[in-house]
Structure formats: C-alpha cells, structure tokens
Design goal:
This protein is of the alpha+beta class. The protein contains 3 helices and 7 strands, in the order H-E-E-H-E-E-E-H-E-E. The chain has a 5-stranded antiparallel sheet, with no helix packed on it. A two-stranded antiparallel sheet has the order 6-7. The chain is globular, with a radius of gyration of 18 Å. The model has no long low-confidence stretch (mean pLDDT 89).
Length: 127
C-alpha cells in the first residue's frame, strides 16, 4: 500500500472537515446587481466558497456579514460615481433586468460583447 495515499478511514476523517458543496446561481458573464447597495456589474470569476482575507471579511458589519459557505463572485462593477472590482456573496446578488450594458473599462479586455443578456468571454479567456 502506498503511504502517500490515505486509507478509506483517513479519507473519511478528512471529508468531515470539507466544506459543503456550494452551487452557483450565476455564471461568468451574467449581469447582476447588489441586493442592498446601489451597484451592478458583470461576473468575471467565481469562488465556490469565500476566498478573500479574514481582514476583508471582518471589515463587513456583523449584522450584514454573509456566510462563507456559499459562492462569492468577482464583478467588474459600477455605480453612479465610478467603476471598480467588487467581491460579493451569492446571497447579496440578483439578476439585473435593466438590459443596460455595464460601463467598466476592463470589460473589453475580458468579454467580446453581449449576447442574449449575458457577456461572452473572449476566446483567449475560455477554459
């Protein structure tokens, strides 16, 4: 038996500490808006669970702090004043039904355009 391969019993012990499987409600290219704050954006990356720093997480007021065991989305975001990159939990996002494009300077470097209400990735960014 290979000593580097965990036994069934060891795998069982390791699995009990694994996070639950999170299911993403949104996909790359979706246009979304924040549930509580006035901004919207296009998703360009997804983390299956929280993957930012603990300092970032603790900076969120406790009464609105999201759970870590859910997908978190990287957005090219905009509000009335500026464009920026946002990191948002799934529970705080809704589909944006405005049919308006997102005005962010980085969009053309990642996406080709919009088809059927969703941005399409440039070929060089597809997996």
């Amino acid at each position: 038996m290979d000593p580097d391969i965990p036994s069934p019993r060891e795998r069982s012990e390791l699995a009990k500490d694994a996070p639950p499987v999170a299911h993403a409600s949104f996909t790359i290219g979706d246009i979304v808006k924040h549930r509580m704050f006035d901004f919207r954006g296009v998703i360009f990356d997804i983390d299956p669970v929280f993957a930012n720093s603990e300092d970032w997480y603790q900076a969120i007021p406790e009464d609105i702090r999201p759970r870590k065991d859910q997908p978190f989305y990287h957005l090219l975001a905009e509000n009335a004043e500026s464009s920026y990159v946002a990191y948002v939990s799934q529970q705080n996002l809704l589909h944006d039904e405005s049919d308006e494009p997102v005005d962010h300077p980085a969009i053309s470097g990642i996406f080709d355009g919009i088809e059927q209400g969703r941005y399409t990735l440039r070929p060089e960014h597809r997996h």
